[in-house]
TrEMBL record:
This is Diacylglycerol kinase. GO terms for molecular function: kinase activity. It comes from Bordetella genomosp. 13. The keyword Chaperone does not apply. Gene3D superfamilies: 2.60.200.40, Probable inorganic polyphosphate/atp-NAD kinase, domain 1.
């Protein structure tokens, strides 16, 4: 399978509908009952007479290794690797799949499901599983941050800290949008408006600035929902960078509220622009240290400089037939 210059794969064979499915399932992902998910997937696939292996993972630290083994088995048997879980799970499995020549399916279990919804894949476990049975393959754009992929977005600065604090609050108080909002407010109150000194260098933009956070999006649906005008550029083979201008804590509250009301793109204090490749240099204080970054909701540490780019390889995604699709809204 050879990618073209825009990252789209050529020469992928159509599915027969008989390929074995190797389902990597993160049992700790999402808020739904694990036994219901297990029994639903098994019932749908058993009724269809489809060959499959449901590989349950109870420790997220094992996901990458399990996904690599699933990809190797799928390559040997002409199968499909399916990720079942939230955005972090989809990311970990996609990282193993990308460039392998193996098709990639998903059964989403996350809160927002931006990646799945962008391609009509519902969050309902039964419908999503049925959608695997008669799906077709479409090449899907993937973002890269250094050597790691992201499907929805990647970020540094304040946003990764918001994500870490949000997960801690969800573990303590439960998963809800109200809990997520409250955790964001507490993080802003505690951390104020600490700013990063960064240098952005791309074909489109060269800029030195101080900002609390930088977010790079790869999901047109998410960007449309928060009102970013460059959302359509994702579908033209670009990524979109978003960063607030230097503002005080009160203005950051306003930006947060606009984001929740899907009006972030209307804010005069937000800078956004499309690009294919961009290098981010950090100020002298951080240049020799690792910096906290987030990719699809999962936080890790990376050494600068940071390079954001469109992957030259596409992810070969199983997209359901029309009767199993949901409206991307």
């Amino acid at each position: 399978m050879t990618p073209d210059p825009q990252g789209h794969a050529r020469g992928s064979a159509p599915l027969t509908g008989r390929e074995p499915l190797f389902i990597v399932w993160n049992q700790g992902s999402g808020s739904r009952d694990a036994e219901v998910i297990r029994s639903t997937i098994r019932r749908v696939l058993d009724e269809a007479g489809r060959t499959y292996e449901l590989i349950a993972v109870d420790d997220g630290r094992k996901l990458a290794a399990v996904a690599r083994r699933a990809v190797e088995t799928a390559r040997q048997r002409g199968g499909v690797v399916v990720a079942c879980g939230g955005d972090g799970t989809l990311n970990a499995v996609a990282q193993a799949v990308l460039g392998s020549g193996v098709p990639f399916g998903i059964v989403p279990q996350g809160t927002f499901n931006y990646f799945g919804r962008a391609y009509g894949i519902p969050q309902d476990t039964e419908i999503a599983t049925r959608g695997l049975l008669n799906a077709h393959v479409e090449p899907v754009q993937v973002g890269m941050l250094n050597n790691r992929i992201f499907l929805v977005n990647a970020s540094l600065g304040l946003y990764p800290q918001l994500l870490e604090d949000r997960e801690a609050y969800k573990r303590r108080y439960g998963r809800s949008r109200l809990v997520a909002l409250w955790s964001c407010i507490v993080t802003l109150l505690r951390r104020g408006h600490r700013r990063l000194a960064i240098q952005l260098d791309s074909a489109e933009v060269q800029r030195v600035m101080r900002t609390p956070t930088l977010v790079v999006g790869n999901n047109a649906l998410q960007l449309r929902q928060i009102g970013i005008p460059e959302a359509d550029d994702i579908e033209r083979g670009k990524l979109v960078a978003m960063t607030p201008r230097p503002v005080g804590t009160l203005a950051l509250y306003g930006l947060l509220l606009r984001g929740l009301l899907s009006r972030l793109g209307e804010a005069e204090n937000v800078i956004s622009f499309p690009f294919e490749r961009m290098t981010v240099q950090l100020g002298r204080r951080l240049r020799r240290h690792d910096i906290k970054v987030a990719m699809d909701g999962e936080v890790c540490w990376m050494r600068a400089p940071l390079e954001f780019r469109v992957s030259p390889q596409a992810l070969m995604l199983l997209v359901p037939a029309e009767e199993h699709r949901v409206e991307a809204a």
